[in-house]
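Possible race condition, two jobs.
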Amino acid sequence: MRSSRTAGMEAFLLARGLLFRGRRYRCPVCGARVRAFTHGGGSLKVRPRGYCPRCNSKARHRRVWLHLERHTSVFTEPTRLLHVAPKYCTARRLSRVRSIEYTSIGLDPAPGITRIADLTALPDSDSSFDAIVCIHVLEHIEDDSAAMAEMWRVLAPGGVAVINVPLDLHRDTYEDPAVVDPNERRRLFGEPDHVRVYGRDVASRLEAAGFEVDLFRADQLDPSTIVLHGLTLDEHVLHCVKAVAP
């Protein structure tokens, strides 16, 4: 049964989606056609490439959703999927896909979370999942190497982890464990609860965990796709495969 909080959220999103109904843009997450994107939360203000008024997806969620459609089989073949710290916009849709056996984890209860777990120490056995979706999570985790290793461990051979992080391709990853002040973290890493800014060496960090990694840059997308879905040029996708043993 849905909580009153979730029911209220659904009612608001439905009403706002109707208010913003149009043909100019399309959200791939919920499928809505809208005249504009908005600021987050309950805002009715227009924001270019902002949040989908129908489901509250951000550009990063729309980018990853398109990647899942175009470069994975999660929507067409039976898939045991692990969704890490999901936002409600993506959790509500992925959990309803018939081909997906859906599990989502977070450190605290929230709409869309199916169980409490820590990505650096998952309770699941080896090869428990066929796919993992991890959007803007690793930059919050101090021991990201442990999180990467755990994702590799619980993936079945041939499985894919679709990972998206704040990424600056003009420099290497910058982190400093001595920085604990939230204001200083915001200045150095972009947000008060971020512990690093990932750079062009991010693929090598994931490869050290065992993955085969391909970087799908946002600027490789067709310009018409970028405009239609309200995407930004700073949201890239790391397509990480656990190779099948020879």
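Job #2 (started ~2 s after job #1):
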Amino acid sequence: MIKRILHITPFFSPNIGGVESHLDDLCAFLKKQGHYQYVITFNPLTTQVEAPVIEKSRGMKIYRYWWLGDNLFHKLEPYPFLEFLYLTPYLFFRSLIFMIRNHRKVDVIHAHGLNAAFTAKFLKVIFKKRAIMSTYAIYNFKPDSFFSKIVAWVFSSLDEIQPLAKSSEKELLKIGVPEEKMRVYYLWVNEQEFKPADKKETKCELGLKSKFLVLFVGRLIPIKGAEIIMEVAKRLSKVNFAFIGDGPLADKLKKEARGFSNIKFVGRVERELLKKYYQAADIFVLPSTYQEAFGKVAIEALFSGTPVIGANRGAIPDVISSQVGRVIEPTVDNFRREIEYLFQHPSTLAKITRNCFPFALRRYTVKNAKIIEMGYYE
């Protein structure tokens, strides 16, 4: 049965991030299934890029409302209540106005993230619509805190909660969200888009010759751990490193990279070039120092035939096994040791490299999208 879906999210393309990338994939899947979609979102808040206020395409209409950007979201991350005030009231106001005008055109409300969930709760009551919510973070709730009790009250009032990976489900259970209301989902990528290629040939295409390559891809903010890998790169002169991403640390990392011949600061790249780097890399690193909700870049690397060394934070241990990589405490010494070991033991690296694509194919294909779609129905 075809549904008319209202997505509520503070972040959407062309803003850059894991949530945005996931929503691109989800919306593309839902289009193919024949659903009609509306999106209520803000102008790009953390990426300096222009975007149309209203964007129409087949089966979809996006409304982007101007709001304060200039990376204010990341500046407020240490202060959850201020971040809540920054995003939620205006998101609710815009969603409410939309629903007053268009409630007959909407069958189900899909809230993306904690801030959107508060909005969905009240729209569900006002307009008598099915409302579900997907998580994209480990929130580090304190079970007995007032805020956790409010969150549990909001989440429990929705028709379905979709935690991203088991680690998110465990956190929500601890604050009292009913297990029967939850349906765990995992991210996915298009295996036709991300797939292995000959690493030597791909390196030549990128002008890297046959150099052993370690790749970092992510937002260049402290909690993503790029500075850890930069320090590792300075200590392993025989290993080459590439940094892809954008953010507040970009200028600092770019300046540091200039003094080392084995470090390449690539910066922000288009998707097609990013795929080449995934294919060319011998090792992908995910050194997050916070409770990473998933790390979609990790499965993009696996589909590209590249093993992952990740931090033991959040859902990363749920995503990576010893078959395809390593999970470690995110310190400079630990990442240096694991990278150096695989560099010096090519047979071990070759074995886990062969496992990457089949491992990802079993766990992270578009079939995971169907789990989300099931939430749209009673």
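DSSP finds 15 helices and 13 strands in the chain.
Logs attached separately.
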